[in-house]
Specification:
Elements lengths: L2 E5 L4 E10 L5 E9 L2 H17 L10 H16 L2 H19 L9 H14 L25 H20 L26 H10 L6 H10 L3 H5 L6 E2 L4 E4 L2 E5 L2 E5 L8 E4 L2 H21 L20 H14 L8 H12 L4 H8 L4 H7 L4 H27 L1
Antiparallel strand pairs: 1-2, 2-3, 4-5, 5-8, 6-7
Helix pairs in contact: 2-3, 7-9, 7-11, 11-12, 12-13
Length: 403
Amino acid sequence: MKGHLEPRGKTVWKIVLELGKDANGKRMRQASTFQGTKGDAEDEMVRLLRKLATGTYVANNRMTVAQYLEHWLSSYAKTSVSERTYERYEGIVRQHLTPALGRHKLARLRPLHISAYYAEALEGGRVQRKRKPKKGEKQPEERPRKGLSAQTVTHHHRVLREALRQAVRWQMLSVNPVDAVKPPRVERKEIAPLDEGGVRILLKSLEGARLRTPALLAVGTGLRRGELLGLRWQDVDLKAGRLSVRQNLQTTRSGLIFKSPKTAKGRRSVSLGGSLLRALKQHKREQAAKRLRMGQVYQDRGLVFCKDDGAPWSPDCFSAEWHKTMKAQGRQVRFHDLRHTHATLLLRKGIHPKVVSERLGHSTVGITLDTYSHVMPDMQDEAAQKLDSVFRTAAGAAQTGAS
């Protein structure tokens, strides 16, 4: 860490400190003015450099939280996270964090400010969309603002914490004020997996529909919607009975994109049962026949599940068709519930949680156990009964020996 003095008069000095480089490799500097002798200015520079080295230096600037968050979005977030994640960060910053906290000076932002924002957001922080006036109505009635959910405010907490953590790394803050604030407590939502009978009824109701094979594969593999829509035939080994998750399809403001899984555990191989293999082989034959009928109009992207012309099947369009089909059948089954169904059925069949975790692509088995803890009571009862049989056998052997 270095610094230098620049004379600004007989007794006025400009102290320039080198703060390192930002995410784009650009040099960052902090300047301050000191009045006194050159020796006193050098002593002040040494003092500031010492604080810089120990992590207790705070840049003396007038940057507001709003200015900093915009800088963080453009200089760090945009080059460090996926396009979809950046869009989510950008929405949270510009629609919520900046309006609520942006007026504060970055160096003077305190935990109390952040805590007050969380309370206000829970009370009435939802962004209101302006309603067009009805015919003959002069001014639309102001609707009461609704509060954000605890889960949503917790997302805001995470984004703000990450943004200000970078400010600490850039030595613009000595401590992160978000670390002293607890996010609201989130009530865990109960998941709604299907049982074996429910799976049979669902698949029966989808016979002849193009949603049946994706639904069957979701129940049989636990793949997410985007992973299924990003699946290519080159990722499926019908002879070995396995598929590999190598990409997923995402919707962004710039259009549909294929992205690799974020973690190594997300890039995984999943074994397929006989029913899934037969369904995939039949699906491949039908797709090949459709490709021949359409000729050059067909966009062959090698996708297992796609639109009728071979183009990628938008996740939003897929979900809309799924919801429409479920509503027509009078069912309340989300497509993601099929992933939960896969995990729950395996756990209830006694499959080791580690195997289930690997099939789902969870980063740790702890996530699997935590997510599907509702299955544990049944497994606990089964464990107790099996252990009890050991005791009964031991007691019987003891009585036989005594006689």
